[in-house]
Structures
1.
Amino acid sequence: MSNKHCDIAIIGGGPAGLSAGLYAARGLVNTVIFEKQMTGGQIVTTEWVENYPAFPEGVAGVELGGLMTTQAEKFGAQIELFVTVTKLTKQDDGNFELQTDAGDTWTARAVVLASGSVPSKLGIPGEDYYTGRGVSWCATCDAGFFKEKIVAVIGGGDAALEEALFLAKFASKVYLVHRRDEFRASPIVVQRVKASEKIELVLSAVPVEIEGDGTRVTGLRIASTKDESEQVLNLDGVFEFVGTNPVNELVADLVDTSAERGHVSIEIDGSIAGIPGLFAAGDLTNSSLKQVISAAGSGATAAFSALKYLDELE
Ligand code: NAP
């Protein structure tokens, strides 16, 4: 319960926030990263990252997140772990005020928003009831519960296909249910999925209900997108990877979130038009590429611009 001050406050400790923290701290300004959970963001729930440069064999997501954290801290970024920023306002003196669920009030001369995104839900019957009883959004967390069992993965993007491959190491069978007959995932991942003997493609189909016995998931009812037919896949688990939604609640009243799906619109230097001192990076923003490398790059850009902004103030 106290008042604290920093030069650059970074909201979110994923690849964008940690890279912003690294660059800001190396600019020798007082830098604080606020992270409501563990640092590393969504990569800590990714088993293996094989498209981040300098790791030719790939790297475990949790290890990459840890390395980014260590590097930001090494240069002096302070991490406020398990702290949620609950309110962000711009004050008349140009500073920002941040209130946290720890009861502290911080002021900052500049802010980098890097709150990322969260997995979308399908919004179908049974989904809420069976969450944690067979319905999951995290294969690395829950795959171990499905050894020699049957699961379905929903979606046709990189997340769905990569996680289907991961689940195939545990499950006896993985249905990959996708609403079209073409995938938006990277061709190399599509190739691997098609080569997997354990993955059965169920294309042009959408989930309509998750069925269960009151305790656990027992089936997934799917409907064809080509005709009126429906069928039930008998299975033990459903993993949903149908996209992500930006975590924008904190700034919904402050900035333009009218871009597709509520992403924050940024300028090329990471700034937010009309709000001097406010920057954004990573999956929260309207950037076209949602990857670790682009999140890290945009975090660096936002911090560099924030440092320039502080210089110009002086
Ligand atoms: P995504 O690329 O947006 O894919 C979402 C998938 O879910 C799409 O195939 C979409 O179908 C399907 N879908 C959406 N709503 C649906 C609904 N209501 N019912 C059924 N299916 C639905 O999302 P993502 O895979 O989570 O990836 C998010 C971003 O992170 C992407 O930019 C992705 O490239 C990136 N990513 C990268 C990696 C990597 O490079 N290793 C790993 C994971 C994620 P349609 O195709 O028909 O729209």
2.
Amino acid sequence: MITMENIIREGHPTLRQVAKEVPLPASDEDRKILEELIEYVKNSQDPEFAEKYGIRPGIGLAAPQINVSKRMIAVHLKDEDDVLYSYALFNPKIISHSVKKSYLTGGEGCLSVDRIVPGYVPRYAKIKVKGTNLDGEEVVVKLKGLAAICFQHEIDHLNGVMFYDHINGEDPFAEPENAISIER
Ligand code: K2U
Ligand code: NI
């Protein structure tokens, strides 16, 4: 089971590496890692479980955050329309995206960042992601809103990108151009 001790923090070199593609069909070892990622995210949203094990709630987690530099992400969230997005994917890839951007009015955080970094994080408002799930099926998923933002945050982790890399250095709360704001 993954706990906060397994989550590496900013400054650890793995967070700045480009993670490697997972050979498919996935090995038992890689499947177990991805299962543990999605289990962490689901468990972290159970207040009793989170309290008992001292884990920070999250809506996503990427393998590099547990020091595994492989292209795997887990996302488990209900969006603003109460639609559940629960995905554990090998080799996720953004295959198309909107011109329009979006950002969370409260900014972003990260389980690997133990500090508040204020500022808007411009993301694509809509994306289409292709990946392979734990059953070995190729999935294509269309995303918008918080789900699109979360997937982009996690896929950034696979490319060594941190959320604050996107924040406007001169004016962190400058309204991103051609963007919709999302309250969270
Ligand atoms: O990758 C991670 O570190 C988990 C991130 C994912 C995330 C951050 C900002 C925006 C979208 C996704 C967070 O720790 S999850 C915490 C959280 C919870 C609810 C809504 C947004 C962020
Ligand atoms: Ni993160």
